[in-house]
Design a protein that fits this description.
Blueprint (H helix, E strand, L loop, with lengths): L1 E5 L9 H5 L6 E4 L12 H12 L4 E6 L5 H5 L4 H17 L4 E5 L10 E5 L5 E5 L23 H12 L3 H22 L2 E5 L17 H10 L5 E6 H5 L6 H10 L3 E6 L1 E6 L2 E5 L10 H10 L5 E4 L17 H20 L2
Parallel strand pairs: 1-2, 1-12, 2-3, 3-4, 4-7, 7-8, 8-9, 9-12
Antiparallel strand pairs: 5-6, 6-11, 10-11
Helix pairs in contact: 4-6, 9-10, 10-11
The structure holds manganese (II) ion (MN).
Length: 346
């Protein structure tokens, strides 16, 4: 596996030089954050980002994310222009040495939580999702940092209206249309696409979500049966649904060679669909990181891994879920598990 770390570019309060100081770090996962969704990423900007990363002796092989324009998810006639741009982005990134592109197909909203700084008993803080505290972003003052910041209330209302007329099957049709166009392009370029599951993995605000469970992942992989059509397996996202058997799913999809990128995050179920994000250490959450790593190791996993969201510890402040310290602890914890597996399992 190749240990990686998400970095939000030069505006990230976490310095890339600090990431390079974490032992065993192969590369960073990044993106261009100043290009409007659906537009072309210039080769010049991609190479400037790569230069910044490689100057710190880190690889730039994974992009998270190239976002998918809402017109594609809605299946609007205008989607073809955005799909053409998406293919241009795949080509430009491949030329810059990128090998894996993470994306998601969540309508309107990216990851959703109800509080970003819940104080733990030990004084650290973390992201939590409490079903009863979920507010409607249309009618209440509710916004999260993972969401597209360019939406105004009226844009949101328009999108809500459009999605109100869409079924799960409509969303599937839109995803299939997208995959049939982009996967052959990825194959040509030697890039793998890795869809991130929906977070949390169920419908939210009455809008359909489809990348939520084994049935959905099976369907996704069968649309275009190619290694280029693969997964970002996010343990924390899929793990929010207690009905998902995370270990069995990782075993199945890693044996198929369809997991290209692992997001390692631990969560604790609070009942009724509520959960909190915890330290990566197995004892702190409901996911067994040793078992997960052992399954990947057994199946010869050679893809990318990154510690996903961490808590804020040691007085650090910054982008919720993306501080340096707890994610660095997560990376070293995972490196330790992996080293042990390498040495003891022959
Ligand atoms: Mn994730």
């Amino acid at each position: 596996m190749k240990m990686s770390f998400r970095w939000f570019g030069t505006s990230d309060p976490v310095k890339i030089e600090y990431i390079a100081q974490i032992p065993g770090m192969h590369g960073v996962v990044s993106a261009l954050y100043d290009v409007p969704v659906g537009e072309v990423w210039s080769t010049e900007s991609i190479l400037a980002l790569k230069q910044r990363i490689t100057a710190a002796n880190l690889a730039f092989e994974v992009v998270e994310s190239v976002p998918v324009h809402e017109d594609i998810k809605l299946g609007l006639p205008t989607r073809d222009r955005y799909i053409a741009n998406y293919i241009t982005n795949i080509e430009n990134l491949a030329r810059a040495g990128v090998k894996c592109i993470c994306y998601n197909f969540m309508p309107i909203f990216d990851w959703t939580r109800t509080q970003l700084d819940y104080i733990n008993p030990d004084g650290s803080n973390t992201l939590v999702f409490r079903n009863e505290e979920l507010k409607n972003p249309l009618t209440e003052d509710f916004h999260l940092p993972g969401w597209n910041e360019s939406y105004r209330k009226e844009d949101l209302a328009k999108l809500f209206e459009l999605y109100a007329q869409r079924t799960h099957e409509d969303l599937w049709n839109a995803l299939e249309y997208f995959l049939r166009a982009v996967i052959p392009a990825a194959e040509r370029c030697g890039v793998v696409m890795a869809i991130h599951p929906d977070d949390p993995p169920w419908d939210i605000f009455g809008i359909p979500r489809i990348i939520c469970d084994e049935t959905g992942l099976d369907r996704l992989l069968s649309v275009v049966d190619s290694p280029a059509n693969g997964l970002t397996f996010c343990t924390g996202s899929l793990g929010c649904a207690e009905s998902n058997n995370i270990e069995a799913m990782i075993d199945k999809y890693s044996r198929m060679g369809r997991i290209h990128f692992m997001h390692m995050r631990n969560i604790r179920h609070l009942g009724g669909g509520s959960f909190e994000e915890t330290a990566h250490f197995s004892n702190y959450g409901d996911l067994d990181m040793v078992k997960i790593c052992a399954i990947l190791h057994k199946n010869g996993y050679t893809g990318y891994i990154r510690p996903d969201h961490g808590r804020m510890i040691w007085g650090e402040s910054g982008k919720p879920g993306y501080g340096l310290y707890d994610r660095a602890l997560g990376a070293m914890y995972l490196n330790g598990i992996w080293e042990t597996l390498e040495r003891t399992i022959k």
